[in-house]
Amino acid sequence: MFNTLSGRFLALTTVFVMLAEVLIFVPSVARFREDYLQLRLERAQIASLALLASETLDAELEAELLENAGVYNVVLRRDEVRQLALSSPLPEPIHATYDLRDVSALTLIRDAMGTLLDADERIIRVIGDPVQQGGLLIEVTMDEKPLREEMVEYGLRILLLSAVISVVTAALLFAAVQAFLVVPIKRVVGQIRSYADAPEDARRIISPRASLRELREAETALQAMETQLTGALRQKDRLAQLGSGVAKVSHDLRNILTSAQLFADRLDSSEDPLVKRMAPKLVGSISRAVSLCESTLAFGRAEEPPPRLARFELAPLVSEVIEAERLAAGDDAIAFAAQVPPGLVLRADSEQLFRVLSNLVRNARQAIAATGAAGRVTVSAHEEDEAWSIRIEDTGPGLPPRAREHLFSAFRGGVTKGGTGLGLAIAAELVRGHGGQLELARSDETGTAFEIHLPRSAPDLAVSG
Predict the structure, then answer these.
(1) 213-299 maps to which CATH number?
(2) N or C: lower Cβ tally within 10 Å for the chain?
(3) First to last CA, the chain
(4) How many helices and strands (H and E) does the chain possess?
(5) What residue ranges do the domains of the chain occupy?
(6) Where is the Histidine kinase domain (predicted)?
(7) Contact status, residue 83 vs residue 77, Cβ threshold 8 Å
(8) Which residue has the higher pLDDT, 288 or 210?
(9) Positive or negative CA dihedral for 170, 174, 176, 181?
């Protein structure tokens, strides 16, 4: 029960109500004690006035007056000279004296708590002002035990009443919390569960109807989120269907183009000058079409698997990437350079990082080759306190404006003429899978530079062999 909102609210309400009752109990008990003592003084004053009718009283009558007043002795000072007195033997010495004239509330509370906590039978002296201006001072001695018993009985009644008030108040508040908070919250939770079962069903989107402003604001925010999520899921479903169709078309088209490529290769042996001049362009066009189909198929597969992190040296990996691109460059006047510190070890998935670097270096090579001029591609790396940084820089013509606007967007951010942008999109996705970031550091007429930042915060792993 105490794990629920209403249960905890009930417990806290009971505790706070009891605390409030305790704060009321202490001064009320002190007030009860003061009234009790004042009543004894009034009775003692009435008993002492019997001396006005007769200067002497027999012992039996005097004892009866004192018993009715509940005191042992009475002294009533009428003026500076005259005073009336009733007396009887004290069973014990006087333990304490309490003066009720001009006493503070804190003193009354302190004396009341002392009376409750001290269980000894004590004789006390009480001093006060006579009622109706019947004298200058009245003083009595009395047994404190009856006073304590009356105070205990009064306190128990107060505590019982406080307990009843606490239970009733807590029950009412419990019912109120159930009606105004718990039930609406459960309704929202039930709606969330219903929506989770079929998020594509727009009929299950919540309709705000709570009367509480805060809860209605939460329902409104939830409605907006569910509306956006439902739209996104519908769009994702349509894109998935479209992607499935494109993948099938690309698969069949790749097979057709592969066959065409084989036939086109034989055109190189033709003696026709026109065929010899056009054949390389035809082969290049078919090769680009095959590459596009393969890239589309690769991008349309399921999400990339999580990187298998291991520690390895970066320099050999960079050398392998550069050697592959140097062979692809052929006779082009493109130089490649690796500026990776020997022994630099980083933590990453070596296969995925190879794909990232291959895409970036290939883009740089193709950008330079498209100009027909000489150029240079440089891969450098350095280590920082929180990350490893790898920079791929070229001396090409820079990215076209359209590519900068849609960088890392598939089919929109191609860096070369006829490119699809899949290479950059895949590279960025792989780097994000490492918790890192791929960003464009610079792109102008002097060249382009991309930077890869891989965090070092992952747990240590053994160096891969």
Answers:
(1) 1.10.287
(2) C
(3) 57
(4) 12, 12
(5) 5-168, 213-299, 310-455
(6) 248-458
(7) yes
(8) 210
(9) positive
CA distance 117 to 389: 76
Band of pLDDT at residue 361, cut at 50, 70 and 90: very high
Question: Is the separation of the CB atoms in 124 and 95 below 8 Å?
Answer: yes
Count Cα neighbours of 107 within 13 Å in the Cβ-side half-sphere: 9
Q: How far apart are CA 391 and CA 318, in angstroms?
A: 11
Q: What are phi and psi of 339, to 5 degrees?
A: -120, 65
Distance CA 107, CA 303 (A): 79
Provide mean pLDDT across the span 216-229. 88
Q: Which two tokens stand for residue 209?
A: 């109807």
Residue 448 has pLDDT above 70, yes or no: yes
State pTM to two decimals.
0.44
Assess contact for 162 and 77: CB atoms under 8 A.
no
> Confidence class of residue 299 from pLDDT cuts 50, 70 and 90?
low
Structure confidence by residue, pLDDT tens digits, 162-202: 778 877 887 887 788 778 778 888 888 888 888 888 887 77
Tokens representing 219 are: 């329902």
Strand-strand pairing, 334-339 and 375-383: parallel
Chain centroid to CA 388: 32
The whole-chain average pLDDT of the chain stands at: 80
Strand (E) or helix (H) holding 377: strand 375-383
Q: What is the DSSP secondary structure assignment for residue 81, as one 8-state letter?
A: S
pLDDT of residue 464: 38
Q: Read off the amino acid at residue 201.
A: D
Q: What is the pLDDT of residue 49?
A: 77
Q: What share of the chain is helix, strand, coil (3-state, %, to 5)?
A: 60, 15, 25
- 275: left (phi > 0), else alpha (psi -120 to 50), else beta? alpha
Q: What percent of the chain has pLDDT over 70?
A: 77
Cα separation, 124 vs 144, in Å, equals: 6
Using CA atoms, how far apart are residues 344 and 184, in angstroms rounded to an integer? 59
CA–CA distances in Å: residue 10 to residues 15, 16, 78, 172, 404? 9, 10, 59, 9, 61
Would residue 46 be called left, alpha or beta, if left means φ above 0 and alpha means ψ between -120 and 50 degrees? alpha
Fold of 310-455: Heat Shock Protein 90 (3.30.565)
